[in-house]
Amino acid sequence: MVGIALEHPDLDLDTVNQSLTGLSATRMVEWAAETFQDGLVMSTSFGIQSAVMLHLVTSVVPTIPVIWVDTGYLPAKTYRFAEQLSDRLQLNLKVYQSPISPARMEALHGQLWSKDDVESLNVYDQMRKVEPMQRALRELGATAWLAGLRSDQTDHRSTLRWVNRQRGLYKILPILDWHAKTVYEYLQAHDLPYHPMFDEGYMTVGDWHSSRPITAMDDHERDTRFHGLKQECGLHLPQTPGEEESLNSSSL
Predict the structure, then answer these.
(1) pLDDT tens-place string over residues 153-186
(2) Among 57, 233, 235, 247, which one carries the catalytic annotation?
(3) Is 243 one of the catalytic residues?
(4) 26-238 is classed in which CATH architecture?
(5) Domain-wise residue ranges, the chain
(6) How far is the CA of 15 from the CAs of 3, 11, 18, 161, 188, in angstroms?
């Protein structure tokens, strides 16, 4: 038993992370459910490999709130993929969107995603992704957040541990040390699908206007997002004095 179930646990992260090292991803989810109980939520983007975390977590906590931030700009295939997975896994899906419609945003600010500067992309991400996620976490009373980040995805994610603190919440990353092969083997073992755009060469997919298939010229799969200007949309960056610098870094 790693941890004690508390309504508002105050954890020593060094001790917790040492205790979790060597546990399976399933056991980490079990620990999170035991520790945070009704305060535990998870997020999904319904991206290329999202079926892994959705299946892994709901196999342990079937009714966990699953937060999906719908930007209003996702590919049609993502919406259909989300519908299929939600039905198959009987997800307790909580869909959150920006209070500013895409049409209103474009009328007031233009097509922010089309501008080749990081500042415009950050404004877009704050409006359409970060604000809805922060609102979801507040409204659902979350104290801990399960996410499918992997250390091999971005420079920032390579610095993370099993359990982290972000914006006052604990964030648990049960597949942090998984690689593409591990993901593939899990999908095969449980007969789970990749996002359909994987077959079109997409290694990662977000909004239709800021994702593209990978090419031989790309050094990393995240180069195919945000015109190659950045790797993170802000959802998984900590709110610290250095956050703006991190958001603006092309190495993230």
Answers:
(1) 778 888 899 999 987 899 999 999 999 899 999 9
(2) 233
(3) no
(4) 3-Layer(aba) Sandwich (3.40)
(5) 26-238
(6) 10, 8, 5, 12, 34
